């Protein structure tokens, strides 16, 4: 079998070697350049972008900057003015006549020395684009000198360190994140650009193309505690910043290959199928501008137009991608392929027919690496909740169970940010739990060593439900915080305009729990509330359990209330100092429940809903009067692992249940038994007045709504489900997880079966 594969590789290599590349053919192709010339007069966006590019090229004529030779090459191809090609040639010749290319001193000090780093790979990329662009202006002698130099200065150390035997240093297990695709792909791009003149480069380019899918398919490893690179739903755990960078570097090589060898079969990389959706789910549109989730080492302004543009050029064309690209045509990310960059200029698609909103679900779970986004719509300035609880290591911060809230165009509940990695503030603050919206115990979050060694026990996100006005997801940070916590669960229950955050906490010893809040905008404490306002966006945070915060600054008069305190920390990129906030539990405990209501407001002056505590034997809860409805939320104190073999039955406000938590909503002029909406979290029954409003052998997560003659059920928890519901009126339609479903109706009870064993 090995002999057959080797023979096949040699045949492919020889076949491509016989197909000389017709320069310019990699990225600044004749086809793309001619189309841009044709469209220039009729496309004002293109015309404006060209002015910017030409200005950059004109400025580069008086300099000796290798990293601007792609602008010079494009200017030559667009204008046929040889002064641009001559300058690019001069710079390329100087670059291979000078000292050997190398990485930074930091990388060269490693054992063995890393000859190729990100700066090195960028040189390879730009040199490849420039050489391909001016190829036909060079004499045979000039080509020979440049290609031999590029091979020895770029390809040999680049692919030698990152890909080729017998000199390879790195493996996918040690450096298989964004560095690998950048350093290896760009060195391979350089090899591809000189393939006509250097047979060894041609062979290396073929070999790299064949093996590139390994990076996408990397499944992690147990021994060195490395996670898989890609979620089954398309996400990459490193952050939006590094996902965009790492994926796009691979796509640049794939596009150059496709352009150079138009008849070769495309690579099979199934991980890319859902990648555009990942970036869209992790985007928030406020005031006609997209910002991205900044979990980990990323920034709000960093977007994924690189990946979208390159995938679109490779043939993965979706209308949703046009929606995204329409809003990222211009930007300030130094690595962005905007219209006013050489590749953006040639490859940015026509976005005039982009849809106003993407055709996507409102919520998405990336369970493999622990991200989730939930929103009330895809309209600009909507509300979005983003939750993270997954692997901690490298660019993925110690932020298990942290969350962000975007509302009316603003990121009101935010992340602490990050700074340049060598600065002590990065490892001492920005990476650590203190910079995130989490719960600390005795001032401690995740162990600091997880930045380097990783979290051996990762956080998890599960059980996402979205029933429109009611949404739910469960976060579990017990693993990465197991130095202190036996249980560290966080439930997010979003009902109408209130997000309820329920923390289920248990530790090995007694101590103090502390809730951290990183807030953007004007923050003002008012009685038991924390009000946050930024521009037109406003919300109110009300901690309810374990206790309200002190209603005044006379904290000594409220010894049993939680303490609201300010904390100081460096702001992102060390531009100054910022304030974040702490809510401390009033007394030491080993086991505690936290319940916080986040009220989303249309206007700052909106009246707060009436929220009151309700409690009974073995349960706590709240009753909420809001917009003509009453919602009772009950938390079962016996369903948190307190009991081993006995079931966790409680009787609360006339309801009998074993559910961990449930919520019932009814009209304020009606009675609880006339319930219109039910949400059950981890329960097998909900009963009242000898009627089983819900019944199942297994504990499930359920949202049930009754509207006219239709019952809608959103449900999960087991692969095989047999469930029944009380139906006080005749029903015509049953929707289960959004799909019309057959059902049995016996007297007042509706029942159905759901079997996902084969699907799972």
UniProtKB/TrEMBL annotation:
It is found in: Periplasm. InterPro entries: Chondroitin_lyas, Hepar_II_III_C. Residues 361-533 form the Heparinase II/III-like C-terminal domain. It comes from the Bacteria. GO terms for cellular component: periplasmic space. Keywords: Lyase, Periplasm, Signal. Pfam families: Hepar_II_III_C. One of its GO terms (molecular function) is lyase activity. Gene3D superfamilies: 2.70.98.70, Chondroitin AC/alginate lyase (1.50.10.100). This is Heparinase II/III-like protein. It comes from Flavobacterium phragmitis.
């Amino acid at each position: 079998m090995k002999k057959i594969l080797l023979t096949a590789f040699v045949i492919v290599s020889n076949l491509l070697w016989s197909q000389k590349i017709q320069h310019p053919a990699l990225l600044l192709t004749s086809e793309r350049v001619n189309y841009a010339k044709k469209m220039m007069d009729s496309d004002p966006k293109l015309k404006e972008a060209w002015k910017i590019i030409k200005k950059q090229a004109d400025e580069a004529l008086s300099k000796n900057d290798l990293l601007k030779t792609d602008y010079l090459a494009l200017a030559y191809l667009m204008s046929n003015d040889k002064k641009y090609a001559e300058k690019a040639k001069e710079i390329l010749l100087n670059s291979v006549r000078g000292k050997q290319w190398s990485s930074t001193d930091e990388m060269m000090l490693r054992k063995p020395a890393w000859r190729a780093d990100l700066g090195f790979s960028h040189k390879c990329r730009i040199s490849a684009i420039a050489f391909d662009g001016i190829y036909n202006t060079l004499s045979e002698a000039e080509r020979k000198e440049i290609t031999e130099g590029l091979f020895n200065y770029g390809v040999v150390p680049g692919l030698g360190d990152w890909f080729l035997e017998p000199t390879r240093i790195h493996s996918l297990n040690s450096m298989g994140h964004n560095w690998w695709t950048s350093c290896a792909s760009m060195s391979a791009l350089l090899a591809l650009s000189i393939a006509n003149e250097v047979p060894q480069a041609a062979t290396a380019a073929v070999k790299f193309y064949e093996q590139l899918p390994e990076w996408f398919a990397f499944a992690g490893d147990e021994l060195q505690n490395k996670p898989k690179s890609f979620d089954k739903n398309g996400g990459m755990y490193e952050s939006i910043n590094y996902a965009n960078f790492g994926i796009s570097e691979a796509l640049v090589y794939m596009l150059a290959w496709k352009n150079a060898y138009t008849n070769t079969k495309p690579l099979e990389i199934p991980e890319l199928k859902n990648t555009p959706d990942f970036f869209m789910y992790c985007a928030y549109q406020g005031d006609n501008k997209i910002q991205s989730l900044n979990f980990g080492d990323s920034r709000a302004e960093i977007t994924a137009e690189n990946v979208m543009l390159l995938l679109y050029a490779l043939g993965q064309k979706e209308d949703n991608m046009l929606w995204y690209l329409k809003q990222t045509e211009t930007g300030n990310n130094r690595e962005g392929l905007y219209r006013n960059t050489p590749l953006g200029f040639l490859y940015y698609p026509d976005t005039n027919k982009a849809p106003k909103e993407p055709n996507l679900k409102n919520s998405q779970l990336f369970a493999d690496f622990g991200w989730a986004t939930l929103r009330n719509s895809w309209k600009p300035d909507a509300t979005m909740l983003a939750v993270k609880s997954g692997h901690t290591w490298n660019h993925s911060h110690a932020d298990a169970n942290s969350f962000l809230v975007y509302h009316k165009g603003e990121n009101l509940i935010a992340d602490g940010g990050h700074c340049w990695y060598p600065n002590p503030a990065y490892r001492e603050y920005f990476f650590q739990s203190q910079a995130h919206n989490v719960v600390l115990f005795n001032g401690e979050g995740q162990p600091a060593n997880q930045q380097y060694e990783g979290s051996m026990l990762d956080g998890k996100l599960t059980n996402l439900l979205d029933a429109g006005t009611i949404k739910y997801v469960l976060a579990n940070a017990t693993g990465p915080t197991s130095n202190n916590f036996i249980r560290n669960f966080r439930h997010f229950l979003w009902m109408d305009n209130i997000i309820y955050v329920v923390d289920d906490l248990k530790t090995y010893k007694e101590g103090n729990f502390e809730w951290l809040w990183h807030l953007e905008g004007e923050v003002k404490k008012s009685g038991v509330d924390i009000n946050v306002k930024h521009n037109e966006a406003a919300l109110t945070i009300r901690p309810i359990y374990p206790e309200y915060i002190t209603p005044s600054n006379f904290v000594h008069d409220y010894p049993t209330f939680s303490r609201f305190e300010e904390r100081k920390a460096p702001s992102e990129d060390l531009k100054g100092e910022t304030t974040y906030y702490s809510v401390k539990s009033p007394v030491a405990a080993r086991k505690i429940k936290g319940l916080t209501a986040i009220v989303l407001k249309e206007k700052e002056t909106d009246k707060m809903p009436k929220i009151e505590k309700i409690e009974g034997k073995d349960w706590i809860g709240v009753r909420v009067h809001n917009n003509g409805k009453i919602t009772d939320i009950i938390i079962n104190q016996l369903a948190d692992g307190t009991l081993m073999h006995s079931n966790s039955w409680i009787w609360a406000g006339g309801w009998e249940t074993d559910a961990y938590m449930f919520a019932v909503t009814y009209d304020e002029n009606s009675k609880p038994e006339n319930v219109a909406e039910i949400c059950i979290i981890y329960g097998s029954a909900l009963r009242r007045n000898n009627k089983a409003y819900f019944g199942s052998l297994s504990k499930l997560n359920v949202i049930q709504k009754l509207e006219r003659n239709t019952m809608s059920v959103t449900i999960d928890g087991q692969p095989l489900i047999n469930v029944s519901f009380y139906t006080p009126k005749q029903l015509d339609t049953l929707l289960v997880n959004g799909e019309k479903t057959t059902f049995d109706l016996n007297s007042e009870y509706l029942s159905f079966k759901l079997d996902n064993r084969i699907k799972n």
